[in-house]
Amino acid sequence: MERARDHRPAASGPGGDGEGPARPEEGTGHALELLVHGVGGTTPERMLDDPRTVRVTGDDTAAVFRRADDADAEGRPGGRGDGPVPEAYVWCNLTSGNGTRALWLLLLPFMVVNLAHWMRPTARGRRRTVRLYGLLVRLAGLSLTVLLVAAACEVALDLAAWQCAGTAECARGNSWLGFLSPHLTDGGWWSMPGRRLALAAVVPLSLTGLLWYLSLRTWNAYEAQQPLVRAPETGEQGSRSALSRPGFWYGRRLVARLRAAHTAAGLLTVAAAVGSAAAREDRRPGGPALLHVLGVLLEAALVTGAAVIVWVVCRRGRSERRLDPAGDVRVVRLLPLAALALLALSLLYAGWERPGWESAGRLPGDATFGALALAQGLLVIVLAVVARVLHRTDPDRRTAMQGLAGPAVAMLACALGGVMSGGVAQRVSDWLDGAGASIPGPPVLLTWQASVIPPLLVLLLMLCGWLAHRAWQLAKAERAAVESDYPGETADPQRTRRIACARAMAALTDRGPRIVAVTSAATLLLGAGALFGALATQKTPGEAARDSHAVVHGAAETAQALGSWLIGLGFILFVTWGRRAYKDASARRTIGILWDVGTFWPRAAHPFAPPCYAERAVPDLTWRIATWTASTGGRLVLSGHSQGSVLAAAAAWQLDPATRKRVALLTYGSPLERLYGRWFPAHFGQDALARLHQEVDCWRNLYRLTDPIGGPIGLPGDCGPAVDRAPLKDPLAYGRTPTHPLPAPVLGHSDYQSDPAYTEERHRLLTRLRPELPPPRTGAHASRAADTG
């Protein structure tokens, strides 16, 4: 496509240099339609329906495009003349780019727990309770980092360096570990247990470094983008949505603090795994007194470091009421360096000469994973109590799961982290040991966790069966409604059934809260049972049930074996998908679609979550809207499809009140109320959307009954025209007509712009917008306007 270098519209905004075509005078009627695409992305050629497009502003990551013929529309008398100038904001590369994005699959549990932070219920006058909610989610996120690094330590330190390399039979079967084996090297330098552990620590250390690198790289590309500077609005708290606050999309200070704390937590986890084994050896009677003292001091330092990390995570949340460019330099720099120094001391301490030290059994992993599972369960339970208190303060019947969506999603994030960590440990153990059973294997708790997966899958299959039955019932009930929507048409049972099925499948989206609630509750109960079974028996499920009834013993053995295989299969599919995404651009786009929904929100609970694309997209849109309206004095329709409608609403909230009143919203296929309003009520609840309806000049929303994502906003016309238009017909024609001589497809979530209602509503919005606006300011006045917002 063409890249416009000399075709920028005149006067890119307040404070411009005055070069280029003269600005139009007041009332010249310039109109702009700023299109924002939705989930999955598209190309500017498709959005603008023209093969010749030029880039107006932006870069290769996100940019605004126009048709080549419209590049200088503002410089022509009367503007475009035949309607608004269409502009396309293309942001799909923020979520689907090169092959390194496939690594984001590793960050899935972190993304899910970050979502839990934003699912907080609406609350009035409960600032301390709101802070407690955020603190609990941040602690849950910290536990996930420790869990992932501990799993890497389990694989590299315990299974490979401690168990396999210390067992002659396993070391012979894995020749690449031969130089670490005391049996095969006759007491070589690396064969000492402490030195083996120190060398194997490279694996979890590399994982921690990779997480730190991904977070820092994406932080520079996303969170470092400064939003449009403006003064806080009078009575801004009354908007009932934090998305209108100046600092909402600028969370770099919190992300930097959390990144330092989580990096330090990962390093200290590795240090504890290496140093605790050596300290346990030095505590035995007859050990060197000096090493015993050094071990005690090292463990005390590790405990102190852990306490400091927890304090850093708990001390400060997000700063949203103003742009906060300050950085906690000492914490950000010194905390990871101090943790790295403790890790180096731990490696040196573990590598010290200890005659007669031999590796036997397992490293103390059972206690570690058990403590993490218990802590996560308690955090989720307390979080549920806090969420319920908040919901009862300001109840909203549309809120998903009566305010418990956040705790439920946090529970699923912890379960996902446990499955990923346990799956890796189980597969590596089977790979190292083969069928010989020469090593003890992973901690018993991980085996119990694997054993609860089959019953959980049975429950999910039952839920899928219930959904299928519900869809059949809905489709049967919709057939009469379909026929009534197309009166006078010759009945076609197959056509009617296809349309009714599309409506029924789209309606299943509203059953999502029930599915999440049942799955999360079952996960909590099964996880608690696995923890109790592991702690009470200290045996695998098959061994614990050996003396019980044959049916019970057989079920336990089957669940244990099947769970291990299912985890292995899931892990293989996970890796295969990641490799395919690395090589296949279409697969990368599929991953990008998942992140479009999951990474809209800033990283408030976990710094290693995939980056928040809205921290780049929303400032882009607000800058473009503010500068264009200020320089031309024209009318602007902000047109958003699907996830683009969410970005459009967020951008409208960020505008100053005067500019917001000069903008009209046109949303279609929008999840603003159906998904975001129910799952994120504190930010997209009915009160917040009603206030946005009041503050923009006008707002219209289009939706279809066959759309599984978009839906009505549900706002009446108290502040202007009602937001929702009646549901659009889908398909546009039931049978063959002169206008549609070929069968019209069921569009569902796509091609809203092909419906005549789209053009009609856009025309109504432009007509409603005031045609005469104050003339733009120039020179120093415009510069000051840009600085103050």
Automatic annotation (TrEMBL):
SUPFAM superfamilies noted in UniProt: alpha/beta-Hydrolases
Annotated region (Disordered), positions in chain: 1-31, 767-789
UniProt entry keywords in alphabetical sequence: Membrane, Transmembrane, Transmembrane helix
Transmembrane feature ranges: 132-152, 197-216, 260-279, 291-313, 334-352, 372-391, 403-425, 445-468, 515-538, 558-578
UniProt xrefs under InterPro entries: AB_hydrolase_fold (IPR029058)
Name of the molecule in the record: Integral membrane protein
Source species of the chain: Streptomyces composti
